[in-house]
Amino acid sequence: MDDGRTTRPGPEPSPSDLPDPEVLARLVHYLNESIMVVRRDWSVAADLGPPGGMLGHGQATGLHPFSIMHPDDVERVVDDANRAMRTEPGWKGSLEFRGQRADGSYAMFHVDFHNRFDDPVLRGMVVVSREVPDPDDDGTPPLPGQLSTDLRIGVVGDHLPIGLVMMDDRGHVLFANRSACELLETDLEAMRAGQMPTGLQPIDRVELIAVVQRLQAAPGKETLTAEIVGSSRRLLSSTLVSRAGEGSDGAVQFVIITIEDVTHRLAREQHLEHRANHDSLTGLPNRAWLLDRLNEWLAEGRTFTVAFLDLDGFKTVNDRLGHAAGDDLLAEVGLSLRTALGPDEAVARVGGDEFVAVVSGPADHDQVRHRLRRAVLTTVGAQAHAVGASIGITDSRQGDQPWDILGRADAAMYEDKRRSG
Questions:
Q1: Residue 62 burial by CB count (10 A; 0-12/13-18/19+): exposed, middle or buried?
Q2: In this structure, which CATH number among 3.40.1190.20, 3.30.450.20, 3.40.605.10, 1.20.1070.10 belongs to the domain 141-272?
Q3: pLDDT band at 113 (very low <50, low <70, confident <90, very high)
């Protein structure tokens, strides 16, 4: 009853108020809809649905949505699907097409699309599907049925933004779209004849055969990144999924492979990772990288030596000549330190004029101190501005955490600075 008072929304549920994963897993069986989140690149980022839904609970994540759609329906809906991806946030639409169940059979699904690319968590198209009776069921056999004779490259391939290959239970290629042939630099006839792409690296060829054999033995999903050398050197990422056919008593009847060129994406990811873990001024690893390296070495039980180095007189250079001169000096010192260390040694810039060197194995402290100090003092900038180095050195100990080692090395560095000051 409305008493005229403003109703305030209740507080957000705390984690303890939410159902635990076991409860959610049980609730999945009561869902009558499958829900997916599809990204701009057409990858399925999330999948929740009943076991009997499209591909079954959680099995679509990482796939391309078209790979779980009946091939004959892809050509019919691909234009509408692409237009849906170009809509504004908040748009809603629907389609009907045949999708794949967990047992490999196909059923008609009613699918609603909700554009939620503006949602900071979802960041994609929310696709809600529910199975409906197929009024147009004409008795089309389940895959692979007559694929080996009836399926042609033009049915699907020219419309898919990724490569798609379909194999039978014996590993014979039934179908490959144009994108797959272009990415592998081969053709459908060669693939049907059992010929491996000539540009595929031998080690990747062996791994691909092993993955296909495992998926022929039992339904499953695996991923593989392979290098192919043809007109150019490229990295291809593949997702391989095997499915049991309808009425096959769980026996695998086909393997679907989706392929995409990730050369530029991996290069960009490596670039971003390098930026996140390296100092932009000196090009040296930064504090985040150093902590990861120390954690890794400690977890492996390795013994190593850490040297904490601080430049003496650097502040004077900054104050008298400006930050540009100081930056030049830091870059010069960073290069000299990196050159002075061997393959099992590394140096990181962890602060304004502070560097930390890590030397594998128990090392001679005097020898390490001599090399690092010499690397600083022989630079042109250090000689021109009378810049020196204070260095504190310690060895790793059993039970250490990264901050324990850095704390001891830092304290030893200040003791060295006090003695030389």
A1: middle
A2: 3.30.450.20
A3: confident
